[in-house]
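Sat 14:20. Reprocessing the chain from the morning session after the first attempt stalled halfway. Input below, unchanged.
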Amino acid sequence: MKKLSSLYTLLLFSITTSLLAQNNTAYWQQHVDYTMGVKIDVENYQYSGTQTLVYTNNSPDALSKVYYHLYFNAFQPGSEMDVRLQNIKDPDARMITEEKTSRIAPLSPSEIGFLHVSSLKQDGQKVTYSEAGTVLEVELAKPIPPGSKTTLEMVFKGQVPIQIRRSGRNSTEKVALSMSQWYPKLAEYDFEGWHADPYIAREFQGVWGNFDVKITIDKNYTVGGSGYLQNPNEIGHGYEAPGSKIKKQRGKTLTWHFKAPKVHDFMWAADPEYVHDILKMENGTELHFLYKDNPNIKENWKKLQPKTAEAMTYFNTNIGEYPYKQYSVIQGGDGGMEYAMSTLITGERKFGSLVGVMAHELAHSWFQHVLASNEAKHEWMDEGFTTYISTLCMDKIMGTNKTNPLEGTYKGYQYLVKSGQEQPQTTHADRYHNNMAYGIAAYSKGSIFLSQLGYIIGEEKLQETIKKYYSDFKFKHPVPNDIKRTAEKVTGLELDWYLTDWTQTTNTIDYGIKEVIAEGEKTKITLERIGLMPMPQEILVTYTDGTKEAFYTPLRMMRGTKENLEATMLADWPWAFPTYDFTIAKPINKIESIVIDPSQLMADIDATNNMWKQE
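Finished this time. Tokens:
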């Protein structure tokens, strides 16, 4: 009986351990519910706020500490952002003076940004906390067990900095307030642990949740941003229902009440000279446009509005349905930056540039604000995927109909490789040696990840992959393996080699035609792999009579080929073999030319050896 009892205990322990292991590896994500009230003084640009945050710990870990981001503290002399700006070889032009010095370094106390917490309690108990630059470190009064909630109540104050990067006051286009990264924002905790990155000028990561925000500001200011306005008929400013009469409010201020469900950030902007237009799309989505009452830009901003609707329709069709009922395009910021249900873009642009920035930032509503990858660690999934789809969108809605709309991304990547300054895409966004290497790796090489994936698996399967990726991972935090596994499930191919080489190394693709020789009435072609990165090969042979014949060499480690190939299938090519031979059943004098990768979707770094021509 004792032996049976021991066996039972052992069995029970084994089952419990197995279940715990499964729970630890199952997907989970944290959740937040913010309730915030903020009052801003438009004379000195200081504000005070309260925040009640209900934090749900869906992790398998008990949490004894939490971290908040205090982004505005970056805009102070001697901050990490300031020091990095002074030490990087190619600083962001928006953040330096004409003399090439930091714009942060000389800020006076009235010009800097700051965000300070003056009180913080957990479920009514005071907690210990301290500022470490742009991060608030908090020791909780009691641990948060797995599967439980806690309420964090905070009082904070801030000062809006002179517009330098993304956020700020009195931009170069005289927009009064661009309020992004303005509140104490809880850092993300996931299967990798805490992501309490200092703000050095790059990217962000946020916790999914719901925002309930009240903004009290001078009543002459028009406000726009994330979420849905809850009191439009009280506020007016173009938000009221048609035909409604707005009751005149006493006092000097109005309190705007917004709710933003299922987002991971909240942005707003305000200016006393904003024009506010609304365009309602056929599917019911409302597009809001807020821009300065400036005759030099008004025509372009009016023309922008139907183009925004066209772009949203394009993304709805080619990625998946936009899940919210409003989107705001707002003049502000320092270029273009995406936020939940909204964007800030500079407005004094030529029409084509204005549409291009809008399309890119709008596309981020899918690739970042619904598919919320950690853009500090996987910036290429954010910027690259957005570049890919927004470039195709622009080609469509502007009617340019280019043969290869993505040609510029390939040229950018080629430039980076030749510069000798490339770093793997696994590099943290803050750790790039220079801005050029970061920008091309994130935007151009990230875009090529998708366009080249289309070369590997076929365009139809690529489109299917993108739609399934969106469907499976919306409102989650996908990682690189998720897009790779989605493509594998769609195609049945093995693609780990592609994700590994393209994103985790600086291995390059370089194939060439090494030799073409006559073998009687046949022709032997020898291809060579010069670069370390493997790829399947598509070869187009043009004969002297004008006819063409396509050939395809599968990559053995793919364990298959893309579908619907109109090509002669050759034996697969094991990567370790540096050369590959195949024979054409025609004499060499009947061949006019041989080309590797006629689609030019393969990012071969040296195309000079990709063609053979009959002399």
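The chain has eleven helices and 31 strands.
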